[in-house]
Amino acid sequence: VQRTGGSSVVSKCSAAARGYIQDRFLQLLAGRRRRRAPLIHRGYYIRARAVDHCVQDFLLKTKSLPRTQILCLGAGFDSLYFRLKDMGLLHHTVVYEVDFPNVACQKATLIKEMKELSALVGDTGGEGLGAITFSGEDYKLLGVDLSELSELEKILEEAGLNNEIPTLFIAEVVLTYMENTRSDALICWAAAHFPQACFLVYEQVHPEDPFGHVMQQHFNQLNTALHSLAQYPDCEAQQRRFLGKGWTECSVMDMNEFFSRCIPEDEQQRVQTLEPFDEYEEWHLKCSHYFVLAASKGMEPSWSPLLPSVTVPRHAGPVGTAGSVPAAVCARLSGVPGLRRYGHHSVLIKANVILTMGGFGEEDGQHCRMRNFHVLSKHAGYWEAVCVTPNIPDKRWGGRLYHTVSCLSDTLALVVGGRTSPSSAGLGMLWLKFPKTCNASGSDDVAVELVSLQPAAEAALLRWRHSTTEVTFKGEQFLFVYGGRSALEPVLGDWYFLHTPELSCTAIAVEGPVPESRHSHSACSWEGGVLIAGGLGAAEQPLGSVFLLRELEHGFQWQTIETYPPLVPRYSHSAHVHEGKLLLVGGVWFHASSVPGVTVIDIMTGLCLDYVINVEHLEWPLMLHNHSSIFLPDEKELLVIGGGGNCFSFGTHLNPEPVLLSLSSILISH
């Protein structure tokens, strides 16, 4: 537990070095520098922003009072005091920091050795007196175990903490490391002993969904179990916890809600453009698994820092479900390591033969971009897989993520777009040619050829997280390439019609209200047109709209499909059409109380039903984003291949085996 403070300050320091947060003191306290990934930078940005937002609100509300105090519980190597002092915000506020004795001693030594720190704090020479490791006029650093409440109370009294003045308690990922009886006692003690008090908490939530399982496993392996989660698994339980322990007001929100409602839009945009970024799913999942809580009592005026400054619709309560869909491991495919991947694409070449290519996954025990293809085929009721090493003329074109594959015949497919790194340009198109006999019983070669287009058309199609769908116009076949993103544009809303098979860009008139730009949406062919659902919009907010691009005599028309109840906004799902019903599978949404399962939309009536996936027969967390799925109409089954992602700093989760979802009970023919 003591080591968590050190790794936390190193991550905050890396975020500051990239401009996410302004804090010149972190480097002095971190001691060592390590460059973290953009996803980690965002995670520590939102954490620092939430704490700062609430602390500054407390100081603003109490600035007319003669004296206030801040008590940082488990402060570690945090720089809060030095930042506030440097900004001139501590005219009448004393900051007390508490941590384990050896952590407090290390920090006290650092402060004494660093002139920039010791000059700010103005050393009064009171340190070294037992548990008080450092003492300045408005800063006290105390070494004491928080779980020893009577000892804590005694030392705080010695250090000069005053029960009668407004006090802000801060617990930034601290209480959860304590046994619940001890953290509950601390919350009760603070409410009982301080007539005017505020309590700020930032920590984890939602242990039971797939991301939550990976998160818990990570902390258990570090021997830093998250004790709060079993008793207080969600934001509502945490709110009830404080209201039941002496606090009269309490507001709480997860970090998706905090980011979209409490951070001004221009600041959101600044952060979103600081460095190349393409891990939206993991960012939103991380944010749905952390919360900020502000509780208070006896404060005049009342302290409510979590009032939104940006008006966006609030994520409503739990999603109602119409039933469940059973999931089972696909028996013969369970030992194929190459199918553990995400950001790949799977396509049905012909009946019972599937090609899976690209993505990031596991090859020869290593995590890497996947260069090998896999051909899956069904024999005598069982799926089998074989690995095919493609002969790719240019190595850069091989391991790509977030591309599309469109099958034009049983021997020919077209790969459009995709990327290697999010900072590099998207990749061009490839022809995939395979023999008529292609299946998993023999590793027939898949020939790969680069596609040459007109330069303007080629540049326009350098994108990823887009969709490519077959459409028909005046009896001719076209591929409709829509949306996505590129190295320059974080979200695209344009489209192209490619006439097949020669792939000429064709101008076809499209009328009607143009859908807002999006990527990571789904697109399905239906009656010669395209059904577009969900996606991530320009402000990195999931979309809940469904559009039909339908054929008219002289072109196409965008038409909105209204859904009832409204479709819960989502992205990174897969989709299929069966007998007038649009099936959406998995994805990421902001309703943290559950994860998306299978949603069935009646295209004609708009009726929208959500089904949870019953995973009781799976022995591992099923992450249904960045996956691919193939609908098998005869069996009324979905074969889900791959899925998962990089779970913040908790490790990479790849669904270990393909899974079959049985839809027969929800697709009863009328």
Concise structural overview:
By secondary structure, the chain is α+β, with helices and mostly antiparallel strands.
Q: Order of strands in the sheet with the most strands?
A: 3-4-2-1-5-6-8-7
The CATH architecture classification of the largest domain is 6 Propeller
Main sheet specs: 8 strands, mixed
Number of helices: 15
Descriptive account of the structure:
- Pathway: tRNA modification; wybutosine-tRNA(Phe) biosynthesis.
- One of its GO terms (biological process) is tRNA methylation.
- Its EC number is 2.1.1.290, 2.3.1.231.
- GO terms for molecular function: tRNA methyltransferase activity.
- InterPro entries: Kelch-typ_b-propeller, Ppm1/Ppm2/Tcmp, SAM-dependent_MTases_sf.
- The protein has an eight-stranded mixed sheet, with helices on both faces. It has an eight-stranded mixed sheet with strand order 30-31-32-33-9-38-35-34, with no helix packed on it.
- The model has no long low-confidence stretch (mean pLDDT 91).
- The protein contains 15 helices and 38 strands.
- Helix 1 crosses helix 3 (38-61) and helix 3 packs parallel to helix 14 (280-288).
- It has two domains: 46-297, Rossmann fold, CATH 3.40.50; 321-662, Neuraminidase (6 Propeller).
- The chain is an alpha+beta fold.
